[in-house]
Every structure is written in C-alpha cells, then in structure tokens.
Amino acid sequence: MLLKLGQLTAAYGQAIALEKIQLQIHPGELVAILGPNGAGKSTLLKVISRAMNSHGTLEFNGQSLHAYSTEQVVGLGICHCPEGRRLFPELSVMKNLQLGAYLRTNRQEVENDLTRVFSLFPILSERQDQIVSTLSGGQQQMVAIGRALMGDPQLLLLDEPSVGIAHRLKMEIFAAIRKICDGGVAILMAEQDAQSALHIADRAYVLEHGSVAQEGSASGLATDDRIRKIYLGVG
Ligand SMILES: Nc1ncnc2c1ncn2[C@@H]1O[C@H](COP(=O)(O)OP(=O)(O)OP(=O)(O)O)[C@@H](O)[C@H]1O
Ligand SMILES: [Mg+2]
C-alpha cells in the first residue's frame, strides 16, 4: 500500500472539513476524488501533503506522515500541485521547472526528468524561456504539473487540473496525466469534471460534506445510476 488514510479527520478551527476518511492508493494507481464545491477535496490533498494538520491514520509506504513537514513530505516522494497552481509568474518556464527539483542532488536524473516533462508537454520545450504569466491558462497548468514531476514523486497530488481550461488543452492535459501514471507515478486527482476524470482513472472516491459518500472502480462509478444523475448529468 502506497498511501493509507483511516478515520482521518481535519478541521478549520471549529469547522470540520473531513470526517473519518478511509482511503487507499496502491503504487502506480490513478485515483480520482469527485464531489461538489466545498466537499473537502482540496482539504484532503492539503492534509496528505502536510499543508494542514489532521487526526487519524495517515501513512505513506507504511510510515506515519503526521510528524513530517510539507518540505519533508516532498523528500519522501509526495508532490502537490495545488489549486490555483502557485507558480512563480515572473520567472521563465525553465526556472519554474527547475525550482520543482530544488531538493534533488542527482543532476543527471533531474536532466532526465526535464526531458520527460518536455516529451509530455512539447509546447513547454518550445516556450522554455517564456515568462510564465504570459502563457495561456492551459499552458500554465502544464508547467504546474511539470514542476511537480520535477520533484520525482511516487505520488502526485493534482487539484482540479482542468479548471478554467479550453477543451482541447484539457484533453491534452488529461492524456498526459494518464501517461504519467502509466510511467509508474501514482496519482490522486481532485476533479470537478467527473466524466473526464472517470475516463482516465482506475478508481474514484466521491466526497460529500467531508465524508466518503461512494467509492469504486472508475468504470463501475461511470455506469452507476446515482453518479450518472448527480455528477454526469444524465439519466
Ligand atoms: N482556509 C479555510 N478556512 C476555513 N474554512 C475553509 C478553508 N478552506 C476551506 N474551507 C472550508 O472547508 C470545506 C471544504 O473545502 P475544500 O476547499 O476542501 O472543498 P473542495 O471540495 O476543494 O471545493 P471546490 O470544488 O470548490 O474546490 C468548505 O466548507 C470550505 O468552506
Ligand atoms: Mg478545491
């Protein structure tokens, strides 16, 4: 088991945002987190990357994460691509990508991962000297995913990778996410676009009001009556 959450609870002050979450990810799996606005999807990713405190079981490769800082968690192999991307807008594409590798010391491996990012997103190779704030939203999302990959993750946390992005780029980004996973990186992805998410994911969890309302294989959920009605707008 790569990641194991059990009875996991988190709150903003008095307001409980996650309650008794049970969730597992196996190595190399692509798992989607679906759910409406305010369900707790971003909070769940923040808790795993230790950007926020929680109570309960939170284990990565059998080791509890509670004692680790956000930075130490990156060193263990968990990279978080947060909501709103948090890039350095005044720096170039290349500089942003290099900053994703700041904890790494093996220059050759970093160079190989840069090649991997450019083969996933060829446009970034063409635009490597461009200032990030002048890229389109979709291209900035590619930089954000690329930067997270430069941390050499075993587990990549993606928060709404497709939000606000034009259809064509969105499809390109989802295809790249599937490729990243096929290359051996496990992915936990929060996503509002349930249809696209279920199309590429292996499994999914549906969060509602901070709890897991449903879980299952992506293909099973895609044909589930309740999911189809609420999240896919059909049936
Ligand atoms: N910094 C914060 N301080 C207080 N409450 C917060 C904070 N961030 C989120 N919340 C609350 O926690 C709950 C879960 O929020 P969260 O951002 O995790 O939802 P989400 O599923 O990611 O929603 P969205 O789809 O809109 O991104 C919501 O009720 C939200 O209002
Ligand atoms: Mg969110």
Structural commentary:
- The chain has 235 residues and is of the alpha/beta class.
- It is globular and about 45 Å long.
- Helices cover 37% and strands 26% of the residues.
- Strands 6-7-8-3-9-10 form a six-stranded mixed beta sheet, with helices on both faces. It has a four-stranded antiparallel beta sheet with strand order 2-1-4-5, with helices on one face.
- The protein is built from ten helices and ten strands.
- The N and C termini lie far apart (36 Å).
- Helix 3 packs parallel to helix 6.
- Magnesium ion binds at residues 41-42, 83, 159, 190.
- Residues 12, 15, 17, 35, 37-43, 192 line the site of adenosine-5'-triphosphate.
The level 1 CATH classification is: Alpha Beta
Q: Outline the biggest β-sheet.
A: 6 strands, mixed
CATH superfamily membership, which one? P-loop containing nucleotide triphosphate hydrolases
Shape: globular
Q: What is the count of β-strands?
A: 10
* Bound ligands, each once: adenosine-5'-triphosphate, magnesium ion
Q: Helix tally?
A: 10
The CATH architecture is 3-Layer(aba) Sandwich
Q: Give the structural class.
A: alpha/beta
Distance between the termini: 36 Å
- Physical arrangement of strands within the biggest beta sheet: 6-7-8-3-9-10
- Unreliable parts: none
Mean pLDDT, as a whole number? 95
Portion of residues in beta strands equals 25-35%
Helix content: 25-40%
Order of SSEs = EEEHEEHEHHHHEHEHEEHH
Stated plainly, the CATH topology is called Rossmann fold
Structural domain count: 1
Radius of gyration: 17 Å
